[in-house]
């Protein structure tokens, strides 16, 4: 993709626009420019697949069954047809003995193991994090583990501050390996993918680090997610 | 039942763009096929942006309902149906977090009924497998960027931050942040051309 020099100054704006990162005033100015500039419109079209690649790069997780039911039922209701798909059951609604038995097993496992263990599939478990004195007030987290991969879900996490990030670590015995560097969204939530990293791990930890991350932790962990040892 | 299965098989061969035309005519089967093709990718993206499974479900429901009600019209100018749909979902999720005060989430308790209802679908379709392979390839592309470029892209796209907010967060000039976004996107674009060739 080549361009006239006078358009170079717009290209940074177009790239930020493609990522929806322009403040309102700059966005309006760029959209006015785009209306009359074939070259910048072509550059935006050329960049769009890159933006889409960012969207598709996230760790793929299976949606719950109830989501499909709800999406289709919503359409039927909106379309004026009688719902042919049953509505999602209320959370307390349980009749099948097998479901009740599964709950007993899940609760027993949580009590015996000392973990808030939630079974959500044949190879998926949810492990609660233990926060430390270094944790910001209101921080909550859990890790959804699926075989050797996992997703750490955090809420109540403030922005790490200028020039700082959060970093996830995987500990195996004495060895602590750096994993993902992240910051929460502006609502204080984050979903941190830990792909193919959890084999033989003892726990996952999170610390606050300088921007770019560190090779070894430089601050005390704010949370631990210990794994049950088989 | 046979008729429904037969129709589902017929729709499986229909291109996304044609599917959208059928959805615009209130075809429930086409809408179902649209969800089956793109629901998992939409849910995965919503979860990445919102950091919470329940909120991700809400965002997916709202996005698909908006499509059904024709409040979100497919724009071929945004590329494929999937890219358009994911863009609409991402914007909805970012709007939600931009309007939400940073407050702690309500306490999470263990609700066994909720856990059981939230079990993932059994159907590990070919589409899901392809999605996982594609997403792994694309993660590799993003992972190949210099960290300062991938960081600003992730903060903007998944975090919903503007370039000025990112500059403040990283302690870098605004022009540098925008330049990193551009360089990063251009490298991804070039890498996509190589992957597809």
Give the arrangement of secondary structure elements.
The complex is a heterodimer of chains A (230) and B (197).
Chain A: H1 5-18, H2 24-35, H3 38-56, H4 65-78, H5 97-113, E1 118-119, E2 124-128, E3 130-131, E4 140-146, E5 149-155, E6 164-172, E7 175-182, E8 190-194, E9 203-210, E10 223-226
Antiparallel strand pairs in A: 1-2, 2-4, 3-10, 4-5, 5-8, 6-7, 6-9, 9-10
Helix pairs in contact in A: 1-3
Chain B: H1 2-12, H2 16-24, H3 28-50, H4 53-68, H5 81-98, H6 112-117, H7 126-143, H8 147-157, H9 163-170, H10 174-196
Features:
heterodimer; A: 230 residues; alpha+beta; Immunoglobulin-like; five-stranded antiparallel β-sheet; B: 197 residues; mainly alpha; Rna Polymerase Sigma Factor, Chain: A; Arc Repressor Mutant, subunit A
The name of the CATH topology of the largest domain in chain B is: Rna Polymerase Sigma Factor, Chain: A
* DSSP strand tally of chain A: 10
CATH superfamily of the largest domain in chain B: RNA polymerase sigma factor, region 2, helix turn helix motif
Number of domains of chain A: 3
**C-alpha geometry of chain A:** globular
Sheet-strand content of chain A, in percent, reads 15-25%
Characterize the biggest β-sheet of chain B: none
Number of helices of chain A: 5
Order of secondary-structure elements of chain B: HHHHHHHHHH
CATH architecture of the largest domain in chain A: Sandwich
Question: Main beta sheet of chain A: strand number and arrangement?
Answer: 5 strands, antiparallel
Q: Helical proportion of chain B?
A: over 70%
Mean pLDDT of chain A: 78
């Amino acid at each position: 993709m080549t361009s006239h020099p006078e358009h170079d100054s717009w290209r940074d704006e177009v790239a930020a626009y493609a990522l929806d990162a322009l403040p309102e005033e700059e966005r309006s100015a760029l959209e006015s420019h785009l209306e009359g500039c074939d070259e910048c419109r072509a550059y935006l079209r050329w960049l769009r697949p890159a933006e889409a690649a960012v969207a598709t790069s996230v760790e793929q997780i299976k949606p719950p069954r109830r989501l499909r039911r709800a999406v289709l039922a919503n359409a039927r209701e909106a379309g004026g047809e009688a719902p042919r798909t049953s509505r999602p059951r209320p959370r307390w609604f349980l009749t099948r003995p097998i479901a009740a038995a599964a709950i007993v097993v899940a609760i027993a496992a949580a009590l015996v193991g000392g973990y808030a263990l939630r079974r959500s599939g044949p190879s998926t478990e949810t492990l609660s994090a233990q926060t430390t004195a270094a944790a910001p007030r209101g921080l909550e987290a859990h890790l959804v583990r699926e075989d050797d991969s996992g997703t750490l879900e955090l809420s109540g996490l403030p922005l790490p501050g200028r020039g700082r990030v959060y970093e996830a670590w995987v500990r195996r015995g004495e060895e602590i390996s750096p994993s993902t560097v992240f910051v929460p969204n502006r609502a204080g939530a984050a979903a941190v993918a830990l792909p193919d990293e959890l084999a033989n791990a003892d726990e996952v930890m999170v610390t606050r680090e300088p921007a770019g991350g560190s090779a070894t932790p430089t601050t005390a962990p704010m949370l631990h997610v210990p794994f049950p040892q088989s | 039942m046979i008729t429904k299965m037969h129709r589902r098989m017929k729709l499986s061969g229909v291109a996304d763009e044609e599917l959208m035309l059928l959805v615009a005519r209130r075809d429930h089967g086409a809408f179902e096929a649209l969800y089956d093709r793109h629901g998992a990718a939409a849910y995965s993206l919503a979860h990445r942006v919102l950091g919470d499974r329940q909120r991700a479900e809400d965002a997916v429901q709202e996005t698909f309902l908006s499509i059904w009600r024709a409040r979100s019209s497919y724009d071929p100018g945004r590329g494929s149906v999937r890219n358009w749909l994911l863009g609409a979902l991402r914007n909805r999720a970012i709007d939600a977090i931009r309007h939400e005060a940073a407050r702690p989430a309500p306490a999470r308790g263990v609700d066994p009924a909720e856990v059981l209802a939230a079990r993932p679908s059994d159907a590990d379709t070919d589409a899901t497998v392809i999605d996982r392979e594609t997403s792994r390839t694309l993660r590799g592309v993003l992972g190949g960027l210099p960290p300062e470029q991938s960081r600003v892209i992730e903060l903007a796209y998944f975090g919903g931050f503007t370039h000025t907010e990112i500059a403040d967060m990283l302690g870098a000039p605004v022009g540098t942040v925008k330049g990193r976004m551009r360089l990063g996107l251009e490298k991804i674009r070039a890498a996509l051309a190589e992957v597809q060739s």
